[in-house]
Amino acid sequence: MGEHDELTPADRRLLARARRDAARPARSAMIWSVGLALIVLGGLGVIISATLLGDLTSHGEEGVVVALAATAVLVSAIEVASGAGLLAGAGWSRDAARAVCVVSLLAGLVGLLNGGPPATVIGLLANFVLLIALSGEKVRAWCGG
After folding, report:
1. Could you give phi then psi for residue 7, rounded to 5 degrees?
2. The pTM is what?
3. What is the 3-state secondary structure (H, E, C) of 18-37?
4. What is the pLDDT tens value at each position of the chain, 145 positions in all?
5. Residue 78, exposed/middle/buried by CB under 10 A (0-12, 13-18, 19+)?
6. Are 99 and 76 within 8 A, CB to CB?
7. pLDDT value of residue 3
8. How far is 42 from 72, CA to CA, in rounded Å?
9. Can you list the alpha helix ranges (DSSP code H) found in the chain?
């Protein structure tokens, strides 16, 4: 009999997680920076887009405009979740954050090309920098490859 035969399934999962965490590198400043940036930017996005959605619906707007505002709330919420997941080292979080950054880049480009405010460039730069950081070795190693 092996040394862990008496362990319950829950204890085995805890032991496997402890072994995995022991092999994980330390949470670097890069991880903290990217994770917190995702949480803060996503939180701001949720607040702004939810406010916009409420304003649109209270004024009787329907259709595509309301759907886009609701999508912005959802994408921003995913950004917050991916930031929290990144800080925890969840494997899915890096891919989710990268997808959100790509969607945000595309939406920002469309907005800028359709007469959006010049401040849109700041959002484009932020998402571009986050995308580069999320593709880095430290973040990949932290999230398990």
Report:
1. -75, 145
2. 0.79
3. HHHHHHCCCCCHHHHHHHHH
4. 455 568 888 888 888 777 776 666 678 899 999 999 999 999 999 999 999 899 988 888 888 888 888 999 999 999 999 999 999 999 999 999 999 999 999 998 998 898 888 888 998 999 999 999 999 998 998 888 6
5. buried
6. no
7. 58
8. 10
9. 9-23, 29-58, 64-88, 91-113, 120-134, 137-142
What's at 143, amino acid-wise? C
Per the CB < 8 A criterion, the answer to whether 144 and 17 are in contact is no
Question: Are 26 and 91 spatial neighbours (Cβ–Cβ below 8 Å)?
Answer: no
pLDDT tens profile 84-117: 999 999 999 999 999 999 999 999 899 889 888 8
